[in-house]
Amino acid sequence: MQSKVMEHEALKKYKPVDCRHFIDGAFIDSEKKVNNINPATEDVIGTIAIGGEQEVDRAVQAAKRALTGPWKSLSSFERSSILRRIGDEILKRKEELAFLEATDTGKPYALALEMDITRAAHNFYFFADYLTSMGTEAYQQDEKALHYAIRRPVGVVGMINPWNLPLLLLTWKLAPCLAAGSTAVMKPSEWTPMTATVLAEICKDAGVPDGVVNLVHGFGADSAGEAITKHPEVDAVTFTGDTKTGTAIMQSAAPSLKKVSFELGGKNPNIIFADSDLDEVIETTLKSSFLNQGQVCLAGSRIYVESTVYDEFMEKFTARTKELKVGDPFDEKVNVGSLVSREHYEHVLRYIDLAKEEGGMVVTGGTNRPDSLDKGCFVRPTIITGLGQSARCVQEEIFGPVVTVMPFDTEEAVIGYANDTKYGLGTSIWTNDLRRAHRVAHRIEAGIIWVNTWYLRDLRTPFGGMKESGVGREGGAHSFDFYSELSNVTIKL
Ligand code: NAD
């Protein structure tokens, strides 16, 4: 694998980075370290400092001091230009960042470049603009009173992040946090710490005052993650990750009544009616099933197809899935890279075995990696049929390149299947019947509903999940509300 990476002349100059904490404007180490592994080669590529209560406390104190330092006196236009400079710097270093993201996660380099890194920069540009154009609420109460809301920073925000879209999701939190004038203590996933480390450097280069952006590496429970969630001087915690971890964080944040925002797991249905444009459906379903090796919270992992087009769908979808190339993330022709770690690879393979035990049929994919690869955490895109609605593989989030497909007969039945889950994150509805599209959308229990598309985002819209998929919404004004405190001022006239 490494030799293929080295074939890419332009990428030769980049090297994996050793990951140290970034506290009060300086990189610092910990005595405790673990190895960082590239999942596609299973080689050790560097080290990660492992922080705990002590490092987190230093970071929180720095973030608290920074709230009343030079950061506080910057005008919104000055903050906005700092955000813009961070975006510029990300784009200037985009090949390097995409190299690090692909090496850390195993995802295709081209995907990292086009999606993760480009959108990370866009997160800063979006909130830089939003910050200088947003208004506030004001109400006139007859001739009696005038009410208006003022906004101030919420304070020190703990940011706990997953490994699937490391830089994209971290910047989705950091950009609005800085826009609102708050300060941050970030903890990336222990599996994918490299781009967060470079982001800390970029923030400093872009003129973010010391202490405003801090980074502590480490694990979750009994480590840096938990230390952030229970620190009494952290005012708010934003977390993206597994639903079970969300429960633990909520408990740990409860004694100090922190504000929380949770973006959690999903088991998202794709509902395909017979009147949809099947070829378009299939091309988008390939993405919603296997993009980023299926490790996307919004992945459409439960596919429901109207019975009259089920056979045609299966034939075309299976044929296109078999054409996807699995392998070296740095090979331009590769569509599906490696899963993020050996632990996660084994977790996904266990679900494929479970699907067979539950009576399912593996139509394509399964455990065997392509012959050309002798190591790495690769799982071929996998389609499973024949499972009932109560099967664990239909109910539980697998978070890999594995989808189940089931036929349905009526609109009523498929709405029932779609809602029959503890999750409520995303849904795609495919139909050319306008009335049905609205009708079904209004009855689906999910925070994000697409009609005839998937993953089409506008950063102004509310983003988040219902049921066990999340708490709160992010995006545009929703993000601003989380990273600020609103006070209402009433003036008697
Ligand atoms: P995870 O919950 O295992 O870990 C996420 C982060 O939480 C890591 O940084 C980890 O160190 C930390 N953590 C773990 N236990 C902790 C604890 N007790 N206290 C504090 N921090 C703790 O999730 P993951 O495996 O990294 O990510 C995959 C999950 O994330 C999937 O369920 C996926 O659906 C979800 N996700 C959701 C969204 C969304 O927007 N809804 C986006 C991406 C991923």
TrEMBL record:
The keyword Repeat does not apply. Keywords: NAD, Oxidoreductase. The active site is at 263. CDD domains: ALDH_F8_HMSADH. GO terms for molecular function: oxidoreductase activity, acting on the aldehyde or oxo group of donors, NAD or NADP as acceptor. PROSITE patterns: ALDEHYDE_DEHYDR_CYS, ALDEHYDE_DEHYDR_GLU. Residues 29-488 form the Aldehyde dehydrogenase domain. Transmembrane segments: none annotated. Belongs to the aldehyde dehydrogenase family. PANTHER family: 2-AMINOMUCONIC SEMIALDEHYDE DEHYDROGENASE. This is Aldehyde dehydrogenase. It comes from Alteribacter keqinensis.
